[in-house]
């Protein structure tokens, strides 16, 4: 489903952040990417989201070359991919309900679909009673669960989680990981980047280890090792 | 889909406007001040025009005819003067009227009147009072009168050459005032536009993160930009209404004062030109809001 083919990225100042990265992710896989800060994890995800382009090599999502998407194709493509971040990136002036419904509106869904799906997905991440709260009224764990609800409401083929537990305590971290595993079991491909050893060990699935822009290990059922 | 989207964009704009009250209010305030500047410029231009018009009206040249000039010749000259595009009006004062005016002006000067009676005959010639559209056109009119040989025999004198210095100076003052007024107006308008543009840009800069999140969720450019542009429209509408309301008591208060000083009552001017001013302020307010928002958001749509 996703192919990274000899992808390299060199910035104008000569920094090489990715060096000939090649790997493949099958549908319904749960892949964790680990590595030190600056190993190139976030750059990798940015290329998958068409936020950044490789200097060499290709990134394929299905049969389309992500870096060659035009503006409106890019928007459509992003609706097929859900993303969550360490800093949540919620819309601060919108309620929990509106944060989720905005993603559906952007995808051009009807009012009926929005009215039935939003409460349902908020219930799924256990935020049914905080639907009308604004992000600043939610705890860190709740914010991240809201971000997950927003990411999955359009039933994406792929969910990208960029250090989703970086700002959370162990209990919230555990909850988020359980939700991600559940989403994966329901059929969505999940890519997770993290520093957290406990997270990797509790997932117990494929682990790609990166260092200085290169893939150094790719274990089928990996443990955290740096 | 288009209608649904438009509805959603308008709703989002209204909700944003309400929830970001502080930001919205400061934007409205700045746009209002800009519109107040625009309005004041309209009023001061009206006042300036009225003052200059009064000055211009005071300037004319008089053509004095000899005592034995025939009335038909004078009226013919009047007709040919009136056919000039530069000439606004020509007033004919006959010998009899000139005498009457003279008597009226010297009502209390008994010796002069007695001297006049002693003469028995009317010593005064007829005159033509010529008023031009612009003060700098008197020279060519005077030249025409001097060169026209058929009339030069009946013309006693043209007082342009006596008044030349005053007329020239006045012409200079008027054209300079108009030029300075235009430049000042232009500078003030440019400053106001820059300030408004920067305030709205700042308001949207605050929403920079939000815009990038919207893009990441897959919203189209139009869908992200829409609410900001509609908010710009709102700034324009509210600000122009505010400015129009503020001008009511201000012009009312200044009305009689400006009438005495400048010959134009700004309150009356405001009321008679209300719809004209409303249109100018509304259009410029909405244009400023929309244009600034559009440009400001564009910068952040390139994710």
UniProtKB/TrEMBL annotation, chain A:
A biological-process GO annotation: cell division
For the keyword Signal, the answer is no
| Family annotation (SUPFAM superfamilies) | P-loop containing nucleoside triphosphate hydrolases
Q: How does it sit in the membrane?
A: Peripheral membrane protein
Chief location category: membrane
An example Gene Ontology cellular component term from the record? plasma membrane
Q: Name one Pfam family in it.
A: ABC_tran
This protein's assembly is summarised as: Homodimer. Forms a membrane-associated complex with FtsX.
Question: NCBIfam families, from UniProt?
Answer: FtsE
Q: Tell me, what does this protein do in biology?
A: Part of the ABC transporter FtsEX involved in cellular division.
Cellular localization per UniProt: Cell membrane
The entry's family comment says: Belongs to the ABC transporter superfamily.
Alphabetized, the UniProt keywords read:
ATP-binding, Cell cycle, Cell division, Cell membrane, Membrane, Nucleotide-binding
UniProt-listed InterPro entries: AAA+_ATPase, ABC_transporter-like_ATP-bd, ABC_transporter-like_CS, ABC_transpr_LolD-like, Cell_div_FtsE, P-loop_NTPase
Q: Which organism is it from?
A: Candidatus Campbellbacteria bacterium RIFOXYC2_FULL_35_25
The protein's name: Cell division ATP-binding protein FtsE
- Return one GO MF term: ATP hydrolysis activity
Q: Which residues form the ABC transporter domain?
A: 2-226
Tell whether ATP-binding is among the UniProt keywords.
Answer: yes
UniProtKB/TrEMBL annotation, chain B:
Top-level taxon:
Bacteria
GO terms, biological process: cell division
- What are the ABC3 transporter permease C-terminal domain coordinates in residue numbering? 183-302
Q: Does the keyword Zinc apply?
A: no
User: Locate the FtsX extracellular domain: which residues?
Assistant: 59-146
Its Gene Ontology cellular component terms are: plasma membrane
Q: How does it sit in the membrane?
A: Multi-pass membrane protein
Mostly located where? membrane
**InterPro entries, per database record:** ABC3_permease_C, FtsX, FtsX_ECD
Record carries keyword Cell membrane: yes
Q: What is this protein called?
A: Cell division protein FtsX
Where in or outside the cell it occurs: the entry states: Cell membrane
Provide the transmembrane region boundaries.
Answer: 27-48, 180-207, 228-254, 274-297
| Family of the protein in this entry | Belongs to the ABC-4 integral membrane protein family. FtsX subfamily.
UniProtKB keywords: Cell cycle, Cell division, Cell membrane, Membrane, Transmembrane, Transmembrane helix
Q: Which PANTHER family match?
A: CELL DIVISION PROTEIN FTSX
């Amino acid at each position: 489903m996703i192919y990274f083919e000899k992808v390299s990225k060199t910035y104008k100042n000569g920094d090489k952040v990715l060096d000939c990265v090649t790997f493949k992710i099958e549908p319904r896989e749960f892949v964790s990417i680990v590595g030190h800060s600056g190993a190139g994890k976030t750059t990798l995800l940015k290329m998958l989201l068409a936020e950044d382009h490789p200097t060499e090599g290709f990134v394929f999502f299905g049969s389309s070359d992500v870096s060659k998407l035009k503006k409106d194709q890019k928007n459509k493509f992003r609706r097929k991919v859900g993303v969550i971040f360490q800093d949540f990136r919620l819309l601060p002036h919108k309620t929990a309900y509106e944060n989720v419904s905005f993603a559906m509106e952007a995808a051009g869904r009807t009012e009926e679909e929005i009215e039935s799906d939003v409460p349902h997905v908020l219930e799924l991440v256990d935020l049914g009673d905080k639907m009308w709260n604004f992000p600043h009224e939610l705890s860190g764990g709740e914010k991240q669960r809201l971000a997950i609800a927003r990411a999955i409401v359009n039933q994406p083929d792929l969910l990208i989680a960029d250090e989703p537990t970086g700002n959370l305590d162990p209990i919230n971290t555990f909850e988020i990981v359980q939700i991600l595993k559940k989403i994966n079991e329901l059929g969505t491909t999940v890519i997770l980047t993290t520093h957290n050893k406990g997270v990797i060990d509790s997932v117990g699935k494929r682990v790609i280890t990166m260092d200085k822009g290169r893939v150094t290990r790719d274990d089928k059922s990996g443990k955290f090792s740096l | 889909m288009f209608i649904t989207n438009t509805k959603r964009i308008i709703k989002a704009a209204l909700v944003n406007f309400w929830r970001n009250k502080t930001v919205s209010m400061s934007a409205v305030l700045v746009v209002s001040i800009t519109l107040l500047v625009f309005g004041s410029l309209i009023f001061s231009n009206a006042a300036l025009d009225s003052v200059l018009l009064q000055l211009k009206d005071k300037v004319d040249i008089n053509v004095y005819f000899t005592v034995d000039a025939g009335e038909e010749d004078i009226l013919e000259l009047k007709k040919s003067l009136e056919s000039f595009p530069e000439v606004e009006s020509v007033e004919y004062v006959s010998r009899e009227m000139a005498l009457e005016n003279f008597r009226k002006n010297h009502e209390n000067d008994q010796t002069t009147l007695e001297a006049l009676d002693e003469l028995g005959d009317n010593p005064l010639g007829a005159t033509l009072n010529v008023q031009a559209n612009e003060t700098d056109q008197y020279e060519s009119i005077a030249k025409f009168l001097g060169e026209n040989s058929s009339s030069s025999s009946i013309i006693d004198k043209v007082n342009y050459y006596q008044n030349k210095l005053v007329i020239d100076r006045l012409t200079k003052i008027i054209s300079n005032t108009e030029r300075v007024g235009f430049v000042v107006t232009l500078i003030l308008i440019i400053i106001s536009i820059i300030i408004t543009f920067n305030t709205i840009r700042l308001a949207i800069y605050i929403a920079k993160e939000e815009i990038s999140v919207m893009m990441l969720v897959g919203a189209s450019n139009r869908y992200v930009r829409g609410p900001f542009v509609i908010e710009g429209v709102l700034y324009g509408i509210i600000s122009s209404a505010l400015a129009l309301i503020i001008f009511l008591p201000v012009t009312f208060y200044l009305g009689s004062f400006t009438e005495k000083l400048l010959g134009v009552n700004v309150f009356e001017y405001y009321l008679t030109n209300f719809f004209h001013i409303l249109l100018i302020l509304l259009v410029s307010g909405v244009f400023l809001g929309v244009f600034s928002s559009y440009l400001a958001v564009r910068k952040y749509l390139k994710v």
